Amino acid sequence: MAKNFLGKFQTQAFDSWKGLTKDVILNTWFGNAFHGQANEASKMIVELLAYQQGPYMESILNDVPTKKFDTDDEYTWNVMASARQNIPLLEARDITGTPVTSGMVGKGTEPFYLVFGKDWFADGEYILGNLNEVYQFRVLGDARMEGTNAVYKVELAGGNIDGVPADRLQAGELFSIEAAFVEGEMSREVGDVRFAMPVGMRNEFSHIRIKHKVPGNKLNKKLAIGIPIIVNNKKMTTNLWMHDVDYAVETQFKEYKNNAMCYGRSNRNANGEYTNIGKSGNAIRTGDGLYAQMEAANVIWYNDFSIKIIEDALYNLTRGTSNFKNRKVTLITGEKGAILFHKAITDIASGWTAMVPNPGNPGFIQKTTSTLHENAFRAGFQFTEYLGPNGVHLKLTIDHSLDDDIRNKIQHPLGGPASSYIFRIMDIGGEDGQANIFKCVVNNEPEYRGYQWGPFRNPFTGETGNPYASFDEDAAVIHKYATFGVCVLDPTRTITIKPAILAA
């Protein structure tokens, strides 16, 4: 980039490079530090173009369990589907077999027929359509199959002798099972049990690698100005070039890993073949990342955001959960999403202020100092949590990778990357104590870090005099390698809410 970001205050254009760093680069960009000629006013390079990054998804996932596997083969699991479901009606026929199109059918408990696309209901069961407390149907015998369609002889129950109107028996009307009622004495067998086939799921490990070469003479090279680095979340400076090299390698590798873990896409096609071949001639295998697995289930697209979107999503995620005290949900979004969330809560919270003294927040308006006025105040707040109906407790977490406009190139009309407006609800854990999302590693397979170096100097480790040199060049190469995966056991327990501008 040749842009003068700071205008007249900037004396040198920003730039970057990849790969080998030679003295000429250090001298050009950091001053002639090796001859004591640098005279910069500041000893720190300000990270003007770098984000002061908070946690990425990789660090957010540090709170989820890690499962170990014996090999790096694909890992599989089953998701048990529910056997409770609605079956759409295909057709209703009167006792003569004529399709019902008008009028009433089933008067005085006269039998008639209901046709469905699968054999699902059992002899003697009561089944219900949309108006389930008004019209109940008793199945009279097992289904008669017409190809793949199941034809059931039924009669009205529940004391109804007036019949059922034809508009309640249109194609698409959903039917479910109520119960199998019998007489009090000498009853005979009725009813049956349904089973759900477990859904087979699979994913596999991803493997990533990085390398970087440094000339051997960079071991003790110092710069006239300090290079800002972050160690243990603390900002500090160093004027030793190799410290910055090491930090840059780790930072780039972390970005590789975060992107693979979150955004990875499997490169296996429908035939089970891998579509990419590496330099070794072997297949490159990449597993689905967290987001690909989540978005296999519930994705909601929006144009105009409101808290109702989240409330509806939370209802779908937690309905049927009896434990109202265990509905804490983490909502992961970008900084723009956090602003949308705040504004959405503000819209509905405006009606609460009359009922809550001083909006429940004595710090809403505070005294401050200013040259503009001797009696100056400051005001403001931000909603970061929401206590919804039925015990839902929603808490925001920021994933700063969503605000990275280098990776996320589509811009939103409201400003910033469109990805920053994504909301992800991850049901991490459930009432059964089984975590829904966990990281996957291979036993005894840590992240590897290794070196190749020539006969003289290793600037990464400080070693000198290598009797077993890997090559003749006075240089060293660092290599890093990692194998990892992530597993979403049941994607239906997650919800992704995305702005419509990101739709393919």
Summarize the structure.
With 504 residues, the protein is α+β, with helices and mostly antiparallel strands. Helices cover 13% and strands 29% of the residues. It has helices at residues 23-30, 57-60, 241-263, 290-294, 307-318, 335-349; strands at 66-69, 75-79, 87-93, 104-105, 112-116, 126-128, 136-139, 144-146, 149-157, 164-165, 174-179, 199-203, 206-215, 222-231, 234-240, 298-302, 328-333, 365-368, 376-379, 385-387, 393-398, 423-426, 437-442, 448-453, 475-488, 494-499.
Rounded mean pLDDT is 80
Which residues form runs of ≥5 with pLDDT under 50? 33-55
Radius of gyration: 33 Å
**Order of strands across the main sheet:** 3-5-9-7-6-11
Q: What can be said about the biggest beta sheet?
A: 6 strands, antiparallel, barrel
N-end to C-end Cα span: 30 Å
Given the helix and strand composition, which structural class is it?
alpha+beta
Number of strands: 26
- Portion in helices: 10-25%
